[in-house]
Amino acid sequence: MRLLTALFVMLSLCAMPLRAQTLIRDADIEHSLGQLARPILQAAGLNPNRVKILLIDSRVPNAFVLDSNAIFLHTGMVTRLKSAEALQSVIAHEAAHIANGHLTRRRAVMNNRNNVTGLGIALAAAVAASGARGSGAIALGVASSAQRSFLSHSRSEESSADQSAVRYLAAAGISTRGAIEVHDIFKGQDVLSQARQDPYARSHPFSRDRVRAMEAYVSTYGGDIPYSATGSYWFERAKAKIWAFQQAPKSTLRRAKKMNVADIKLMMEAVAYHRRAQTGKAAGVMQTLLKSRPNDAYYHKLLGQILLEGRQFGAAVNAYARAAKLLPNNTLILAGYGRALLAAGQPKNALKVLENARSRDFRDPSALRDLGSAYSQTGQPAMASLAVAERYALSGRLKDAEIHAKRAAGRLPRGSGPWQRAQDVLSAAQREK
Description:
- By secondary structure, this protein is mostly helical.
- Helices cover 61% and strands 5% of the residues.
- A 5-stranded mixed β-sheet has the order 1-2-3-5-4.
- Its EC number is 3.4.-.-.
């Protein structure tokens, strides 16, 4: 699991910045959340391959949408909920905001501001002030009043999303009782002062009437659908990996003892040993795990990460190669594979893999960093400058991005694809001045 600073859209609505927020990009977690979301998105008439479920590193529970391409969940929302069905009800509610067209007003606000970066690399990510202190900044300047306007929905929209969410869950064969669990967690928030409310309650106000209406929806739509073992597995897997990387290793090992799913238990132990810098022990646990799940690309990827960060570069390349063979189109696995090849002193091979990763998803600053290094090591300084420019742009450092984009544009063939990408960075930098 990697934490990275990701600028998806820079909104400068006023001079007061939000606290730093960090996006987690992890192939395994994103896949697990995607498995939970897929039947819901299909029931909502949305394309599961287009709508991503992305994770914000904040222990304060929240969830939101800002455009039709992504649903954002805080780690605190995932870890606070007790069942897959509860998390799926949150996903269904946010999907309803997309499917029901509730984002039109928000999009108009964005367009009217005329200060959104024009790189075409954005999912539009403004994050509610959660009080969490991330390790890097999404460069957003949003006053609290503008922020509430941007993230909140009207009562009619909330009611509409509640009813649609329950229908999606029932149509997907998922128990709707999870919606009551979510309401039980946040009920009573309306009587607290706004400063004391959870961000999710601020942007999704839970009135008594709304709770009663939800209970009626649940009794009407599929309240008797049994819980799903498959959904529970993916929920526990995502939750366990978040826990293992966020909590102290001792706590993770203690929690792993209570886990009754064998592969998840071993995964938690491996991460705990890895975070204690016990690379050999962590790799050994992963080898045991992979005997029972030899075709699980995400576990091969985790073994590769453990070995790479333990500076066992040759073995890391082999683990990542196996993961990439199993899932050749997964951009995060390809990015890790390229990083391992680069560390192992194979820049030409790394370049091919990293270019493949970038062609599929160019929103990963970490992959762009490695790509720039691969270009530099293979004697392509102009392309190296372009990769650095795009990485800085994604991280919100548009002044630095402009410097490197100018350097790249001056060396690249005029009118070529890479030259045009450099122009996109320059245009974005100019708009932000």
